[in-house]
């Protein structure tokens, strides 16, 4: 009791990744961020595959998860660069919405402490446009830093998952090899 193998730890990491990915998916849906929605969807599927592979002792599934973890780190580095305007990327572009809408991060309007000042509608004017606010003021933290923190946490957990997945694959294949030699 009290001992947790690498396999147990990887199950915990995959479960944590699922919770974090679902949380991120909700906020990306609220902001109509289509590229992150698709990336999160694939991430959730691959993490479930990795979880299944870990529980069922299937090293091939865990290897797929390991490769995806490396790609997930790269995606989150891109997101960090995007929101910090690094390398010609701009957080004000419509890149994450595939240029099909003018939506941006949900956190840009609803961050901690943010107060939206809405423009009053002119009498007799009916619009279906929901983006009628003028400014967002009083935010305790700019939205791009919230997105960067989200991505940073995703990178940290993915790197832990990568390391433990490599260890579990090694342990499973070593166990299989020792059974074949007997």
Automatic annotation (TrEMBL):
<dbReference type="Pfam" id="PF05640">
    <property type="entry name" value="NKAIN"/>
</dbReference>
<keyword id="KW-1003">Cell membrane</keyword>
<feature type="transmembrane region" description="Helical">
    <location>
        <begin position="62"/>
        <end position="86"/>
    </location>
</feature>
<dbReference type="GO" id="GO:0005886">
    <property type="term" value="C:plasma membrane"/>
</dbReference>
<keyword id="KW-0732">Signal</keyword>
<dbReference type="InterPro" id="IPR008516">
    <property type="entry name" value="Na/K-Atpase_Interacting"/>
</dbReference>
<comment type="similarity">
    <text>Belongs to the NKAIN family.</text>
</comment>
<keyword id="KW-1133">Transmembrane helix</keyword>
<keyword id="KW-0472">Membrane</keyword>
<protein>
    <recommendedName>
        <fullName>Sodium/potassium-transporting ATPase subunit beta-1-interacting protein</fullName>
    </recommendedName>
</protein>
<feature type="transmembrane region" description="Helical">
    <location>
        <begin position="151"/>
        <end position="172"/>
    </location>
</feature>
<dbReference type="GO" id="GO:0002028">
    <property type="term" value="P:regulation of sodium ion transport"/>
</dbReference>
<feature type="signal peptide">
    <location>
        <begin position="1"/>
        <end position="21"/>
    </location>
</feature>
<feature type="transmembrane region" description="Helical">
    <location>
        <begin position="37"/>
        <end position="55"/>
    </location>
</feature>
<keyword id="KW-0812">Transmembrane</keyword>
């Amino acid at each position: 009791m009290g001992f947790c193998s690498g396999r147990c730890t990887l199950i915990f990491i995959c479960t944590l990744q699922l919770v974090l990915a679902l949380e991120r998916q909700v906020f990306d849906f609220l902001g109509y961020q289509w590229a992150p929605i698709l990336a999160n969807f694939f991430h959730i599927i691959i993490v479930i595959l990795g979880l299944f592979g870990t529980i069922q002792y299937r090293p091939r599934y865990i290897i797929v998860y390991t490769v995806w973890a490396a790609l997930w780190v790269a995606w989150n580095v891109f997101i960090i660069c995007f929101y910090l305007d690094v390398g010609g990327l701009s957080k004000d572009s419509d890149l994450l919405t595939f240029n099909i809408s003018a939506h941006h991060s949900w956190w840009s309007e609803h961050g901690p402490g943010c107060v939206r000042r809405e423009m009053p509608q002119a009498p007799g004017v009916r619009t279906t446009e929901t983006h009628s606010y003028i400014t967002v003021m009083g935010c305790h933290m700019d939205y791009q830093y919230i997105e960067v923190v989200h991505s940073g946490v995703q990178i940290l957990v993915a790197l832990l998952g990568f390391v433990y997945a490599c260890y579990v694959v090694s342990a499973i294949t070593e166990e299989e090899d020792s059974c074949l030699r007997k």
